[in-house]
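Researcher: Next sequence.
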Amino acid sequence: MNATEQGGVSSSISNGIATITFHHPLSNSLPGKVLQALADEITACGKKEEVLAILLQSEGERAFCAGASFDELISIEDEKTGKIFFSGFAKVINAARTCPKLIVGRVQGKAVGGGVGLASAVDYCFATKFASVKLSELAVGIGPFVVGPAVQRKIGVSAMSQLAINATEWQSAEWAREKGLYTEVFDSIEEMDTAIASLTQKLAKSNPEAMRMLKGIFWEGTENWDELLSTRAAMSGELVLSDFSKSAISAFKKK
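Model: Next structure:
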């Protein structure tokens, strides 16, 4: 089984909280298959009456998400295929945006590219001090076009520009907290999980209709994102075909 066929998404519901977990052996990277499953699961959980809130997480301890699958990026040979792949990120962000349930994020380790997009798409994000962030897209010849609106909405144009332009530099979890990406940062996974349990238990006892209305207010002004993110996906799908991108992605994959 090659890397694009590996990975997956699972979910469980306990005491009104749906926990959605994604995984991939390559630092929780995101091939198209996992992106589609993630979007589908967020949408499905959002429709279940017994679900009062959602916890989004990944497996393991060291990496939250390595972003786009390099193996899949290298295999893209035409603009249509490229747009379809990058539309996978758009689908996940839009699924989180339109989900009527509040989504809590659990970022236990480093987040790159699309991983930063996922952290930006949740409504309340916990992290550990090991959860550094980086938008590496420019370094491989493209740009954080699809995740950009979600990241910019969370941390503002200035901080988004810093991440997007200085594409090879990690920013610390504390930096991400100061900019508004993370709500709280903890010294250990155990401390973070304790805080997550406390908050989700409170949400499970809160008024579902009030939370639904709050969610709608939080995301006001993003009603055009279906079209916007589709356009952004086409931009990335075109750029990934360039000789620059092909060479840069191959070099990154060999590291």
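Model: The two ends are 21 Å apart (CA to CA). The chain has one domain: 3-191+208-254.
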